[in-house]
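Internal tracking record. Fields below are filled automatically when a chain is submitted to the structure queue. Please do not edit lines marked as system-generated. If the sequence contains nonstandard residues, flag them in the REMARKS field before resubmitting.
Queue: standard
Priority: normal
Entity type: single polypeptide chain
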Amino acid sequence: MIHLLAHTHWDREWYHPAVRFRARLVALIDALLAAPPGALTPFLLDGQAIVLTDYLAVRPEQQTALADALRAGTVEAGPWYVLGDNLIPSGEAIVRNLEAGRRTLRRLGAEAPPVAYCPDTFGHPAALPSIAAGFGHTVAVVWRGAGGTSFPPVDTAWWRGPDGAELLCYHLPPDGYEFGSALPIAAHAAWTRWHRIRETLAARNRTGTLLLTVGADHHAPDPALAEQVAQLATAATADGATVRRTTLRDAAAELYLAARGHSVPVVRGELRDSYGYTWTLSGTLATRAYQKRRNAQLERRLLREVEPALVLARLHAAATFRDIDPRGALSLAQLPTLLARTWETLLATHPHDTLCGCSSDAVAADCSARQRKVAASATELTAAALRGALGHDPVAARSGPVVPQPRTVVVNRTARERGGVARLRMIETVADAPVGPGSAMAGSADLLIDVRQSSHTIPPQLAAAMVQPLQVTERFHRRESPQHYPDNDRVRVHELLAWLPPVPAFGVRVFDDLARPAVPPAPSTVEQVGDVITLRNGRLTISVSPDGVMLAQGDRTLARCLALETVADAGDSYTPSLRGAPEPLRLRRVRVGMRGPLRSSVQLWWSWRVGSERLRVRTELQLDAGAESVRCEVRGVNGRRDHRLQLVWRTDVAAPNIMADAAFGPVARTPIPDVPDAVPYERPPTTMPLHRWMMAHTEDRGVTVFSDGLAEGEIRDGRMAVTLLRAIGALSRADLPERPGHAGWPVAIPAAQCQGRFAATVGIALHGPMSIATVDHVEAMADALLLPLTGESWRDLAGPPRVLAGPILAGRGLVASAVTLSASGDTIVLRAVNVSDEATVGSWTLPDAVRWQVRSCRLDGTPLDGEEGQWRSAAPSIDIVAAPRAILTLEAAAVD
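SYSTEM-GENERATED OUTPUT FOLLOWS
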């Protein structure tokens, strides 16, 4: 049985921006809805729901007709909100993608097919079976990422996730989702086409049930579709086969039943190898690297800042904060919905052509604009939630003056209590700065803004504290209220480091006096003897000389361990084509940066120049008091075209095993075998996806390198490299030895040369061999590097010091994945992942001021079957029993 699925593959934006493709989408869906029954339908609008939103934004009068078609199954969409890249986003972002897709369809009274439909994604995470099972999906349809030497030569396999969840993986033929496109009408042509289809599909089939997708990129259905299918079915019948037109829902059900009745192989792990079968296109990991970095930062803001702030408000705000505020102030009546909309804006940057950077410059500009919107929304939602949690009334506060000694609000964005080094912004009011007609007589003295002061002064109340001044600026600052014009003031912003006592997990601590004693176990110091600069903090030593950088910890020493390397890259947005040997940047200057006692640093200036092309990079190695890792802040100016720039750590771990952070827990990685003689010819790069960290380890030692969002890493020959940028100027080239032929349309993308400024934060840590304790240690260091304690003074916040605790996670091998509110805002969702391969126990702890009831859920919030899915009374401490690599989701409700 061959199930024929008519579809379109809809890249929302690619070589054209979304607004152009949307115009064509409107015409396509209009044609579907206007056609006689059965002429063009059933029809799949790809695996994403955002196309429905795009269509209805133009044709709202068609909502009823579209909803009816979706409910009837004549038109299908989803389950995703967007057909996103699945290797670059976090596991939680993939979950939010499915949540948004379901939410969009349910607004129209419809449900998506229970299929993880991924027809063009450039690879798939090992956790996708677990994610799919968490939404009730039983089948995945994939193309790229499978078919290489690591995948059996079959079209159907059970794909087993790290936690044991199984998903039936149906693998498309080498031509992918367009294999059945442009079917002929003439009988002889249909017979010829049928035999090609039969030969290709039958060669890998093990169940007697197959899927034939009829469609291609941005293709509307052919008006003669019914006749084309009839001719193909006639040719198949004469050959003893059956072709039946179907929906994705029905085809998936039949594929699943067929697989249950046959012996099919089991595959595990990531799907990143299509080499020798079809193009994988994994060279996109560093294209437009700045957008991938920004995406990771925004995901962390939403997951570790905004969502926990909403939970904190649900735990500690007055009951009235759940209601609509008659004065127009934000409350929990609006915040969960605004959060969902913010996620949708970020998800609109996740399609593989967008987030992977293989798109036009216009698309990249739209992506950056959406990212700015997400950042602005995150700021507003976090501020509103924290105001609610602290009982800070913006209307009453704006009605009064600034307080003489502002309170400082410090936020901990991790699941465990911690103190130590925090970066603070202390805001000192200098003068009122009127705006509007009343400002005409104010003079011009208040026009100074962003003027850096010559001395690192600190506020008087901090004179006795363990603080380290960083810089002082002057700027404008506004106090705002829904009932007032903003109060505009000229302020002095003191940025400084302070050593703080513990701040509760996912909580805040309000200080009225930071001058109370708090002393680090050992200060971070800097010493310069001749041209050698040495940083120490009692655990680590960094020594920098004109010969390079030395890192020491205990009996381990990495000599000349830091380098920057550029290599010519003649590739396109999909595929690197590296030419010649890497060229090291020259270390030209070294000087002391910060001098402690909380953070010391050394700054290194590097450069490369050939003709008019030039690279300039400053790396600042920072060592905090108490830190077990080194932070490296990178700031540079790229003036070279067509090249790749990497920051390289040279380590003492040779021939290592590789472990890397990925969606819902780390994965072990081995190099993808090269297939130089394969057809179609595409050679795998030596690089790999990079989330927050990658580890090289042997039986006696390990090294971990951290990244704040750059998505490409490389480990080989004792080197651990992070790609800072790829500078390329073509969407697609046809003359690459690594991949002859165009992977996309030949479009010039000069902005992808990434000329000008760039930045990154990376880090390195030395540790012992791989173990559960090591992974826990690495996770804690990643939090310290990427989610440090931060705080700011609120100029109109008065009252006594306060401590507000959020949910606390305890347990070996357990990592907090989500702390958020349900869609209604009435319950709290807590998700933990056991990142180890051993069973473990632990607990979530909630504030004990109220009684709680909890239940266990799937990823999508559906209660589990049996007793676990029933509401049960819970103490403030909720016990967790986690199987190896389990993803555990709890829903907690306060008992009034």
